[in-house]
Amino acid sequence: MLKAGVLGAGHLGKIHLRLLEQSERYELIGFYDANPEYAASIEAEFGYKYFSDIDALIAACDMIDVVTPTSYHHESGMKVLEAGKHLFVEKPITVTVEEANDLIALSRKRNVKGQVGQVERFNPAFRSVVDRFDNPMFIETHRLAEFNPRGTDVSVVLDLMIHDIDAILSVVKSPVKSVSASGVSVISKTPDIANARIEFENGCVANLTASRISLKKMRKARFFQRDAYISVDFLTKAVEVVRMKDAPEVPGDFDMILKNAEGEKKQIYFDNPDVADNNAILDELETFADAIENDTRPVVNLEDGTAALDVALKIIKEFKSL
Q1: Residue 153 pLDDT level (bands cut at 50, 70, 90)
Q2: How confident is the model over 86-105, as a mean pLDDT?
Q3: Are 104 and 306 in contact (CB under 8 A)?
Q4: Does domain 121-278+310-321 have CATH number 3.30.565.10?
Q5: Each residue of 125-144: pLDDT tens digit?
Q6: How far is 310 from 24, CA to CA, in rounded Å?
């Protein structure tokens, strides 16, 4: 079992602590939090060992899970990597691309693994259709949430939209050509609602909307590609795959047939995969254990996290140019 430690015991940090303790892949060594009084209360309530010395915790572990505020990701990550330990860091990877590149360079120098907590990659609905994507050319996402003061220290792009940015970049195998966007600050000092358009060099276009001031929750993505439409509901963990193929010469009574302007007939059919239930956070942590033990590429490596951050920051830059 890999010895694991957690930096940061806030809302998400407590979830990671619980899952690491439950996991059969890790031995939870303990945690560090910058607030000693709060840390002592977590230790008393849950029994996790509190380390008052961050370096002592890092030294005692094989892998460190960084769940601190984003502004501390770079400093914490560099400490972990400098010590030659494997790094799991929550999204966004860092505040700037330059900081993220520091982590990449040091992980390579120390020959250790790094993974970024882009949890929607492990959503069972998304995972069930990964092998069905085939050069999508138009993508539309909506990620809407009710207002929560937690996370409003950063733009809605880094808080919410970055999940969809990462998912899209994992599907579209083409460099980003251009980004345009608009955002509005309603309650927070940073944008609370945003829309972005990403154009790729292969001609694919992605239209993303994110809001943290909505009256209802929504986390949906729609992918359009040749002869197929794929819908992923990250919230309800449901998928819909609609495909088209050449219609048979003699259609059945219940076959759905469409005829285009050129007279070609297509049959519409549903190809919905089974969606296996899972705990996405536990899965991302345990697949990281696989990567460490088998010396394979993490599902969302530091380079992936940096690519998503780069696009997110370009979107935010568009807000400032308005």
Answers
A1: low
A2: 97
A3: yes
A4: no
A5: 999 999 999 999 999 999 99
A6: 35
Residue 272 pLDDT class (50, 70, 90 cuts)? confident
pLDDT of residue 148: 75
Mean pLDDT of 95-104: 98
What is the pLDDT at residue 34?
Answer: 95
Quick one: CA torsion of 183, 185, 189, 192, rounded to 10 degrees?
-70
CATH fold of the domain at 2-112 = Rossmann fold (3.40.50)
Structure tokens at 95: 């505040």
Residue 240 DSSP symbol: E
Please report the pLDDT score of residue 140 as a whole number.
98
Higher pLDDT, 6 or 267: 6
- HEC states along 195-233? EEEEEECCCCEEEEEEECCCCCCEEEEEEEECCEEEEEE
DSSP strands (E only) in 76-130: 86-90, 114-117
Range list for CATH 3.30.360.10 in the chain: 121-278+310-321
Q: Rounding to the nearest 10 degrees, give the CA dihedral for residues 53, 56, 60, 65.
A: 50
Asked if 224 and 138 count as a contact pair (C-beta separation under 8 A), the reply is yes
Place of tokens 């460490």: 292
d(CA 172, CA 238): 21
* Strand 63-66 to 2-7 pairing: parallel
Taking residue 97's Cβ as centre, other Cβ atoms within 10 Å add up to 16
**Is the Cα torsion angle 91, 92, 97, 102 positive or negative in sign?**
negative
What would the mean pLDDT of 264-280 be, rounded to a whole number?
Answer: 84
Can you read off the two tokens belonging to residue 174?
Answer: 């083409």
Range(s) within the chain of domains with CATH label 3.40.50.720: 2-112
Residue with tokens 């154009």: 199
Question: What residues pair up with 222 in beta bridges, in sequence order?
Answer: 140, 231
